[in-house]
Amino acid sequence: MTYQIEGNTLLFAIDRRQIVDIAVNDTIQVKGFPGASHVWTGHDMEFVENNPDDEIFLEVERVGDNQYKAAGILLQ
Prior knowledge:
With 76 residues, the protein is mostly beta strands. The chain has one domain (9-75). It has one helix at residues 42-49, and strands spanning 9-14, 27-29, 37-39, 56-64, 67-75. A hairpin with a 2-residue loop joins strand 4 (56-64) and strand 5 (67-75).
């Protein structure tokens, strides 16, 4: 059986080692997804530092054909 899921949201896992030196106003971009970039904020920094065991994700929304927009950082 095949199940089809409709949606416009993608989650990209971020390895903490990749952003160990990230600073406020630095940009995270997703290669191959035009427009999928997120400017790191003080809130993001605090959120990640206060949850050291959580996995980090960048939430990206498809807004058109081959057009994307980063919606923010999620932790799980």
